[in-house]
Amino acid sequence: MEDVIPNTMANPPESAEKVTDGFHLIIDALMLNGINTIYNVPGIPITDLGRFMQAKGLRVLSFRHEQNAGYAAAIAGFLNKKPGICMTVSAPGFLNGLTALAHATTNCFPMILLSGSSEREIVDLMQGDYEEMDQLAIAKPLCKAAYRILQVEDIGIGIARAIRAAVSGRPGGVYLDIPASLLSQSIDAAKGNASLVKVIDPAPDQLPSPEAVSRVLNVLKKAERPLIILGKGAAYSQADDDIKEFVEKSGIPYLPMSMAKGLLPDNHPQSAGAARSLVLKESDTVVLIGARLNWLLSHGKGKTWGKGTKSFIQIDIEAREMDSNVAILAPLVGDIGSCVRALLREMGKGWNGPPSAWRDLIIAKRKTNEESMALKLRNNHIPMDYHGALGVLKNIISQHPDAILVNEGANTLDFARSIIDMHRPRKRLDVGTWGVMGIGMGQAIAAAIETENSVLCIEGDSAFGFSGMEVETICRYNLPVCIVIFNNSGIYKGTDVNTSNNFDVATTVFVKGARYEKIMEAFGGIGYHVTSPDELRQAVEEAMESKKPALVNAVIDEAAGTESGRIGNLNPQSITGTRSN
Q1: What is the DSSP letter of 207?
Q2: I need a labelling partner for 354 at 20 to 30 A (CA). Which of 18, 138, 368, 462 fits?
Q3: Which regions of 164-217 does DSSP assign to beta strands (E)?
Q4: In this structure, is the dihedral angle defined by the CA atoms of residues 60, 66, 68 and 74, taken in order, positive or negative?
Q5: Would you give the distance in Å from CA 473 to the centre of its chain?
Q6: What is the CATH code for 19-194?
Q7: Terminal Cα distance for the chain, rounded
Q8: What span, in angstroms and rounded, lies between the C-alpha atoms of 407 and 460?
C-alpha cells in the first residue's frame, strides 16, 4: 500500500509499525475494483472520507441534495455496467438517497448507497444518538441487498459483496452501512492491505440451455407477424453488435422502448417506432429482449395488444420474470449477449424472415405517420407548441448523435420519446420504470462526467423544479450541459382555474412569466429566453457549440399541454400524437 496513516500516539517508538484506518481501506477497496468516481453530499461522518478520496485521486462530485446524487450514481451504473457510488450522511441524508436506491433497483441499475450511520450500541438501545436510525433495517425492503460493516478488517469483504450483488444476475441497488466508528478504526497496514478483495468476474455470463434456444427458433419459424421489442436491459447489456446482427438477420421489425432507442438507429428500415400501435395490436409473435411486460407495455394485455392470441418469447436473466403477466411460450433465461449469440449460431443460413406482407404493412403505416408528423414538426407557431419546439431539437440531436439526451416531464416526456430519433446506443436517458420526476439534473451531471460528451437535457417546468438547484453543481464543475425548459407555467398546462372562493391559484399553476434562465446566469452559466422555434434553434445550437453550462427558457403555449404523464397510455397512440381513451 502506498499511502498509510502514521500512528498518532504521542512520541511513538521508532519501531512502531505503520497502520492504516477505515477511511483509507474503503478508498483502497474501491480503487482496487476500478471505482474512481463518487457522487455525494458531504457532512458528518463522511466529510473527511470525501477529502481523503480526493487526495488519493478519486473524483468526488458534491451535490446540493442526496436524491440527485443518487440518481447520478444510478445512471452511471447503467452507462458503465459497474456500480455507481452515492455517498451520504446518516439518517436524513440516507433517507434522501433511499428514493434513488429504490429507483435503481426497480430499473435494474447497479448502484451502491454508502451511508454513514450512528453507533450500533446506541442505536440498538435507542439512546438518542445524533441522527440515530436503524438504516440497514429500513433499506432492506427497498434494494437488492444490504450490508453493514462493523470491523475494519471486514471492509474488503463488505465492499466486494456489495459490488458483486449490484452487478450479478439482474443488477440493482445495494445499501452499505458504515458506522462512524468504523472509519477511524486502525489496523496494521500490511494486514489491512491483505484483507482487500478484488472481485473476479462479478457478473459472469449465464448461458441459455440449448433446448430453450431451439424452442425460441421453432416458435419464430411459425410466426406470420413477428415483432421484437428492445428494452433498456438490452441497452444495458452492451451487446450492441450482436443485437443488431440478430435483428437484421432475422428481418423482424423491432420496437425500442425509450431507453433502448438508438441500439439500432430509429431511422433503420426495420424500425416500427412510427407504427407502434399497429405492431402491438397486429403482431402474432413478440420477442422481448431485456424488456418487461409491465405497465409500460400494458402488462401484455388489453386493447393495446388487440384481440388475437399472441405467442410471447422472452429473453431475460431473471427466470422469475417469465409469466409475470401473461404466459411466456418460449422463455430464454440467461444474459442477453449470450442468449442473442446462441440464437445467431442456431439460426443457420436458411432463415427467411417474416412474410413480406407484414413488413410492407408496417412500412406503409410508418410512412403515413411520419408524413403526418413532419407537418406538425415544421410549424413556426408563436407561442410554441410541443411539436414545433421538439421538431427543432430532433434536428439538433441528429446533428449531434453522440450527445446524451436526458428527458423528463409529463407532456415533455410523452412527446419527446416519440418525436426525437436516437442514432447511437445509450444516448437517451429518462425516468425509467417508475416514471420518477426529478432525475434530470442528476442524470445530466453523471452523463457528462461518465461519457465526457455534451448533454441536452429537455425538461418540463414541473420536472425541473424537483432538482433545479443542481444548476449550481453543473456550473461548479463547468459541465457541457444544455438544459431546455419547456415553460408553460404549470403542470400539464398553465390555464387551470381555482373555482373556490379563496385566492390561491389552481394547484397545477406556476408563476407566470418565470425566467428560469436567470438561475443559470446567477451561477455563471449562459441563459437564453426564447419564444419561437427559430430562437430555440439558435440558442441550443450556440449552447451546444460552446460546451458551457447553459439553460434555455423555452416559452410554450400555456394551453398546449394535456393531462398526461401516464406514458403507458401512449401504447395505443400513433406517432401523430392522438390519444385513444
Answers
A1: P
A2: 368
A3: 173-179, 186-188
A4: positive
A5: 19
A6: 3.40.50.970
A7: 64
A8: 9
- Nearest of 531, 579, 542, 558 to residue 388 by alpha carbon: 531
User: How far apart (Å, rounded) are the C-alpha atoms in residues 272 and 423?
Assistant: 15
Domain 378-570 classification at class level: alpha beta
**Residue among 32, 302, 288, 336 nearest 170 (CA):** 336
Q: Could you give the CA distance from residue 224 to residue 171 in angstroms, rounded to a whole number?
A: 35
Kindly report the number of other CB atoms within 10 A of residue 34's CB atom.
Answer: 11
Strands in 138-279 per DSSP E: 145-148, 173-179, 186-188, 226-230, 254-256
> In CATH, what number does 210-362 get?
3.40.50.1220
Q: Which residue has the cell 407555467?
A: 489
Please report, as a single letter, which amino acid is at residue 300.
G
pLDDT digits (tens, 9 = 90+) for 210-251: 999 999 999 999 999 999 999 999 999 999 999 999 999 999
Structure confidence by residue, pLDDT tens digits, 426-474: 999 999 999 999 999 999 999 999 999 999 999 999 999 999 999 999 9
Instruction: Indicate the domain borders of the chain.
Output: 19-194, 210-362, 378-570
The sheet with strand 59-62 has its strands ordered as: 59-62, 37-40, 84-88, 111-117, 173-179, 145-148
Residues near 116 by beta carbon (within 8 Å), at least 6 away in sequence: 44, 45, 46, 49, 88, 89, 90, 93, 178, 179, 180, 183
Exposure letters 516-553 (e unless 16+ CB within 10 A, then b)? bbebbbeeebbbbbbebbebbbebbbebbeeebbbbbb
For the whole model, what pTM was predicted? Answer: 0.93
Q: Are 437 and 466 in contact (CB under 8 A)?
A: yes
